[in-house]
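Propose amino acids for all 141 sites.
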C-alpha cells in the first residue's frame, strides 16, 4: 500500500466538514483563502466518517471507492485542504506517520510564512518610494 492516497472529491467534502468541526490541528493562509486541517488516528476518522455517511444522504457508503476505504483503514491520519479562491477541496490519507507529519509541517510552512517573509512582503507592497534619508545641511551663504 502506498504511503499516501488522494481521496475522491465526494469523500474529501465529507472529511472537510468533519475537519472544520473537529480537526486535531489547522492552519490558514494570510488571505484566509486556503485552509488545511489535520485529522489524526485513521480508525477514528473511519468511524466518524461512517457515522456521518449514515446520518447524511449526500453520499452512499457503497459510492466510496474500495481503494479510498482501504487507504482510510490503514491511515495514521488525513490532511484536508480547502481553497475557497478556486473552490476546491482535497484530502490525502497517509499510511506512514512520518510522512503524515512531514507533509503537515510542509503545509503549515506553505500557508503560514515566517515573520521575516511577512515583513518582506509587506515592505514590497509599499506604495512609497525609497527613503532618501535625512536632508543634508544647507549652505546658506
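Proposal:
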Amino acid at each position: 500500500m502506498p504511503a499516501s492516497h488522494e481521496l475522491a472529491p465526494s469523500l474529501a467534502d465529507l472529511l472537510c466538514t468533519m475537519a472544520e468541526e473537529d480537526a486535531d490541528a489547522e492552519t490558514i493562509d494570510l488571505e484566509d483563502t486556503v485552509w488545511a486541517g489535520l485529522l489524526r488516528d485513521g480508525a477514528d476518522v473511519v468511524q466518524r466518517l461512517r457515522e456521518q455517511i449514515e446520518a447524511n444522504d449526500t453520499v452512499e457508503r457503497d459510492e466510496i471507492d474500495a481503494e479510498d476505504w482501504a487507504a482510510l483503514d490503514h491511515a495514521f491520519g488525513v490532511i484536508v485542504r480547502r481553497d475557497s479562491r478556486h473552490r476546491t477541496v482535497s484530502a490525502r490519507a497517509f499510511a506512514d506517520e512520518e510522512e503524515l507529519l512531514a507533509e503537515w509541517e510542509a503545509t503549515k510552512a506553505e500557508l503560514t510564512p515566517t515573520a521575516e517573509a511577512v515583513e518582506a512582503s509587506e515592505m514590497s507592497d509599499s506604495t512609497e518610494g525609497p527613503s532618501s534619508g535625512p536632508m543634508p545641511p544647507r549652505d546658506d551663504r
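The chain has one domain: 4-122. The mean pLDDT is 82.
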